[in-house]
Design brief:
By secondary structure, the protein is α/β, with parallel strands linked by helices. About 45% of the residues lie in helices and about 20% in strands. It has a domain of about 40 residues. The protein is built from four helices and five strands. It has a five-stranded parallel sheet with strand order 3-2-1-4-5, sandwiched between helices. The protein starts with 5 loop residues before the first strand and ends with a strand. Bound molecules: adenosine-5'-diphosphate and magnesium ion (MG). Adenosine-5'-diphosphate binds next to helix 1, strand 2, strand 4 and helix 4. The site of adenosine-5'-diphosphate has 24 residues, from helix 1, strand 2, strand 4 and helix 4.
Amino acid sequence: MKKIANILVGVDGSENSLRAAETAGELGRKWNATVHLLFIVGPSDYPMLDGKEVWADQGAKIGANELDKAAAMIKAMGVETKTDVDFGHPAIKLLKQSEGMDLIVLGSRGKGAVKGMFTGSVSLRVSQQSKIPVLIVP
Ligand SMILES: Nc1ncnc2c1ncn2[C@@H]1O[C@H](COP(=O)(O)OP(=O)(O)O)[C@@H](O)[C@H]1O
Ligand SMILES: [Mg+2]
């Protein structure tokens, strides 16, 4: 197996994604890898707000806040970390940004877990379409 040097984590602010980040941090410490934390602002995330500019702006602020929390935890574990906010469909963007990474770590559920039966669509799609290993944390 290829050496794991770069780990991508999808952070959506859910408990599951924070556990995914923690797991990535533990693996990062073990393997001396960098943990890349990515928050994607999806167009359907903030439908109550008028217009694209507004949701993008608000979403980026919420994302930066969630990323700060996760990054502080990873740094406290003594692991190198980078953060990024992107815009678009979460699964598509995660797959795109996994180019050059060695492992993707996601939560099994996300923020949408209370919404009904169609949960885990991002982790499901990424795990099915990824070209690199995906670790799904419950
Ligand atoms: N907008 C997002 N940005 C980054 N990662 C995400 C995003 N949405 C989901 N993920 C990742 O996918 C995992 C599973 O979420 P998801 O498939 O959306 O489940 P749910 O349907 O319960 O929201 C999350 O724990 C997180 O790791
Ligand atoms: Mg979701």
